[in-house]
Specification:
The complex is a heterodimer of chains A (341) and B (501).
Chain A (H helix, E strand, L loop, with lengths): L1 E3 L4 H10 L4 E4 L13 E4 L6 E5 L4 E5 L4 H9 L3 E2 L12 H6 L7 H4 L2 H4 E7 L5 E5 L11 H5 L8 E8 L1 E2 L3 E10 L1 H10 L6 E6 L4 E9 L1 H9 L5 E2 L11 E5 L5 H8 L6 E4 L4 E5 L5 H13 L3 E3 L11 H11 L13
Parallel strand pairs in A: 1-3, 2-3
Antiparallel strand pairs in A: 4-5, 5-9, 6-10, 7-8, 7-9, 11-13, 11-14, 12-13, 12-16, 15-17, 15-18, 16-17
Chain B lengths: L1 E3 L8 E3 L6 H11 L4 E2 L2 H4 L10 E3 L3 E3 L4 H14 L3 E4 L16 E4 L6 E5 L4 E4 L5 H8 L4 E2 L12 H7 L6 H4 L6 E7 L5 E5 L10 H5 L8 E8 L1 E2 L3 E9 L2 H13 L6 E6 H11 L8 E9 L1 H17 L4 E3 L4 H12 L1 H4 L6 E4 L9 H15 L3 E6 L7 E5 L4 H20 L18 H4 L2 H14 L28 H4 L7
Helix pairs in contact in B: 1-3, 8-10, 8-13, 9-11, 13-14
Classes of the chains: A alpha+beta (341), B alpha+beta (501).
């Protein structure tokens, strides 16, 4: 297996145009699923330019190898940020974040990569360079290739550059914690009181939940919201789970309790975004039987669980998913065996 | 997009298809019920165009199915007969997305208007595609919830049409477009199979094909159910209306407000002609100044008080002549009515007009408006501007008299030049109206052949025979399996199974 580090997108194009090799695209390696061997790894390490940044337009264009932390430093100079907070920002690259649809608790308010990406340029399996979307926050011209790339796990094309909408940095932030709280009840309370947390995260170590809320924005609004939850203590935002393989799962937000029960046999620290019904389990056990059991219980609730590139039972749309993959990568050389297609 | 005020139709482009054979019509009638299958010329006339009224074509048959199963039956019949399919909601689209292909099967979704499920705890709603946009918010409003995308046509346009066009609206600056509020779709594909993409549970494994279907302008399939994200209403909304000597000061005010870190819920600009038109249509008592801004901030009450005060101050510093704050909800509603009716209102000050939908980086607003004004002078035509300033989505309305063919030609030419200005500034040919039949010719000016080819691959993955809405969005007809380059007839074309639009 060869590993190459192209210094330009044109070099990456040339590598792919040669054809005939199974290829894996590698960013910071924070979310890379395991899979069968490939012939070539293309690293985005040297594709690390911020191509264009216009603070007044709140739009930034980056090459895929720029790390999230580095981009945030650039944006912070102008009082802005990309409203995405997946783990390991020092390592995670923006190309990888798009490919893996990575996110963190800020998704509560700002949505996921699909809600922040406005344009993309890619290199197809045959070396063809193509783009979709644009560099304005609003465009509906053509099919939405940027969204197709979100969570495509390197199986459709090499994500070469990404254009994001960015947001102003908040003036003030406060974190509150409900220890032993019920995530669903807290979500109901937040809605009843018309509060607008930037992030909500419930954490369980096996015995009930601690629910964290973060309010951000102008000081007047942050303080007013803090005052409406007088009974909750102020707290530091919880430490992220230790780096390592994570199990991802999803279910309806109202199924928080059933999800905790289904995942209990993993003996893992659980993170749960209670307004979205998405979570992560840091891997405490490698017991495949426990994982399969948890997956079955989640599936019975209409949910899903993914671990180590195993996405569980195929969805009803698998035929169409495969059709998309087949059109864009007819030889099946991109990230083989890493996604459900 | 061209709007005709009554009486001027001499340049109407109308295409007639061959009438369909009676036995085929009978089969469609059996699929949806005779009362919902139209084939007589006077019935078909209603469906000849959408909001892009200057383009017309006659469908072969119009069917109004009442269920996913009936849609499936119609798709299978059309496929068997080798007929193209065009889907239609309320027909308010401004780019010809629902314009029939001559002789096509036009599937109207207006009878599928059930709200199927509302789940507040999980913040979603499941609806059929014929549900009217505003009815979604009306249905959940009493519980304190709403649906965010608010196109100006929201009292008549359908959710299915919104999904097809990825409709925006004044408030998408803060809240996003239809795609950001569509969690899942049920789609009838070209072969009559039905797939669910996305859904109420987030991030179900697989590509984000729901994200691709939204905004695909009816080229990928027919959406028969939609899972919408619904939002709790914000605690407060603060609105103000500010007037300026010209669009330059108004544009600077927008930039200053955005630069201060405020994310307005909406910030809309109108120039003199648009103000005059809105006054004529709705009776708002706005002064006839160079430009006006209408702005909403919403959210937690104390935050709104803060941000609206800051925004008003910034508007004054940028040169506002006057700032008005509505006294009550009724006055606020009237201000917004003035804004939302501004398009149609232009019909009161000109016989005909063309609407453009270009987008530019918002920092270029003042400069681009000057360039557009310069074009207007060069062509000797008046231009009214009413648009979403926060996201740089311009809606220049080029006014003309359609009785004068030369003036009409100039208006069309100038309208195209406006799009080119937007592209030169790094913008887009359409922010919310879609490409459709109207702007397909401009796609190669925004996208390379490789870009368009990649999009065609996606289309082919969904609809290999090009059954749905052929000829829309893409400038160059292409069948799946074609190599880009020289035209060669495709095998299915030779055998008569498919055709080039």
């Amino acid at each position: 297996m060869a590993r190459v580090t192209p210094g330009s997108i044109e070099e990456a194009q040339a590598l792919l145009a040669e054809g005939g090799r199974r290829v894996l695209f590698v960013g910071g390696g924070t979310a890379l699923p395991p899979g069968p061997p490939v012939d070539l790894e293309i690293s985005s390490e040297k594709l690390d330019r911020v191509i264009e940044y216009e603070p007044a337009d709140q739009v930034v264009i980056v090459e895929c190898g720029v790390t999230l932390a580095r981009l945030q430093r650039e944006l912070a100079k102008h009082g802005q940020r990309l409203a995405l907070d997946p783990p390991q920002p020092d390592k995670a690259t923006l190309g990888g974040i798009v490919a893996a649809n990575s996110f963190g608790p800020l998704r509560t308010r700002f949505g996921s990569v699909r809600d922040l990406i406005i344009g993309v340029s890619v290199v197809r399996a045959d070396g063809t360079r193509a783009k979709g979307g644009g560099k304005v926050v609003k465009t509906v011209a053509g099919f939405d290739l940027p969204k197709l790339m979100c969570g495509s796990w390197g199986t459709l094309a090499f994500i070469a550059t990404v254009t994001f909408r960015v947001h102003p940095l908040p003036e003030e932030a406060v974190t509150l914690c409900a220890r032993g709280g019920d995530p669903l009840e807290l979500v109901r309370r937040v809605r009843a009181q018309q509060l607008e947390p930037a992030a909500m995260l419930a954490i369980s170590q096996g015995k009930g939940w601690d629910v964290y809320l973060r309010f951000e924005g102008f000081a007047a609004g942050v303080r007013a919201q803090r005052d409406k939850l007088r009974d909750l203590e102020e707290s530091a935002w919880p430490e992220p789970a230790p780096a390592g393989a994570r199990v991802r799962f999803g279910a309806l937000p109202t199924h928080a309790a059933q999800v905790a029960k289904a995942l209990a046999p993993l003996g893992a620290r659980l993170e749960w975004l209670p307004t979205l019904g998405l979570g992560f389990a840091s891997r405490a056990t490698a017991d495949p039987a426990a994982l399969q059991g948890a997956r079955r219980e989640l599936a019975a609730l209409g949910g899903w669980l993914a671990a180590d590139g195993d996405w569980g039972p195929a969805p009803g749309s698998l035929g169409l998913q495969r059709s998309v993959k087949q059109r864009l990568d007819p030889a099946g050389v991109l990230a083989p065996g890493r996604f459900l297609v | 997009m061209k709007q005709e005020t009554p009486g001027a139709t001499h340049l109407e482009l109308k295409q007639q298809g061959q009438p369909l054979p009676d036995p085929l019509i009978k089969r469609f009638a059996a699929a949806v019920g005779a009362a919902y299958c139209y084939s007589r010329p006077e019935q078909l006339r209603t469906y000849e165009s959408d909001g892009l009224a200057s383009f017309r074509a006659t469908p072969g048959v119009v069917v109004l199915p009442a269920s996913t199963e009936e849609v499936v039956a119609c798709v299978k019949l059309a496929r068997e007969a080798g007929l193209p399919i065009v889907a239609r909601g309320s027909g308010t689209g401004l780019s010809g997305g629902a314009l029939p292909i001559p002789g096509c099967v036009l599937i109207g979704l207006s009878r599928m208007r059930k709200i199927l499920e509302v789940d507040y705890d999980n913040a979603f709603m499941r609806v059929q595609p014929g549900v009217i946009n505003l009815d979604v918010s009306k249905h959940i409003g009493p519980q304190g919830w709403y649906y965010a995308p608010d196109p100006s046509s929201q009292s008549v346009c359908t959710i299915g049409g919104n999904v097809a066009e990825n409709s925006g609206g004044a408030h998408c600056l803060k809240y996003g477009f239809t795609v950001n509020h569509t969690l899942g779709v049920r789609v009838v594909l070209h072969d009559g199979s039905v797939v669910d993409l996305g859904g109420a549970v987030a991030d179900t494994p697989g590509y984000d094909l729901a994200g691709v279907v939204v905004g695909s302008e009816g080229l990928l399939g027919i959406v028969t159910e939609v899972v919408l994200r619904i939002l709790r209403k914000p605690e407060a909304t603060r609105t103000f209306f500010a007037t300026f000597p010209s669009t330059t000061e108004a544009g600077n005010a927008v930039s200053a407000i955005i630069a201060s870190g405020i994310v307005p819920a909406a910030i809309e600009m109108m120039d003199t002609l648009a103000i005059v038109a809105a006054k004529a249509a709705t009776g708002v008592d706005w002064p006839e100044v160079g430009a006006a801004l209408l702005m909403d901030v919403d959210g937690v009450a104390q935050e709104c008080e803060h941000t609206s005060a800051v925004a008003v101050e910034l508007a004054r510093k940028a040169g506002a002549l006057e700032v008005r704050v509505p006294r009550d909800a009724a006055e606020r509603e009237l201000m917004w009515k003035g804004r939302k009716s501004a398009f149609a209102a232009v019909g009161r000050i000109a016989r005909n007009y063309l609407v453009q939908d270009g987008v530019i980086p918002r920092s270029k607003i003042a400069q681009v408006l000057q360039e557009i004004a310069g074009l207007g002078q060069r062509y000797g035509l008046r231009v009214a501007n009413v648009f979403h300033a926060g996201d740089g989505n311009l809606h220049p309305l080029v006014l003309f008299d359609g009785r004068d063919p030369e003036e009409e030609r100039k208006a069309e030419e100038m309208s195209g030049e406006i799009l080119r200005i937007c592209l030169r500034h790094g913008g887009s040919i359409t922010g919310e109206h879609g490409v459709g039949a109207d702007k397909a010719a401009y796609m190669p000016e925004m996208f390379s052949a490789q870009d368009l080819d990649t999009m065609q691959l996606v289309r082919c993955a969904f609809d290999p025979a090009g059954t749905f809405n052929p000829g829309k969005m893409f400038p160059t007809p292409r069948l799946c399996g074609d190599k880009p380059g020289l035209y060669r007839p495709h095998p299915s074309e030779v055998s008569g199974e498919a055709w080039r639009a």
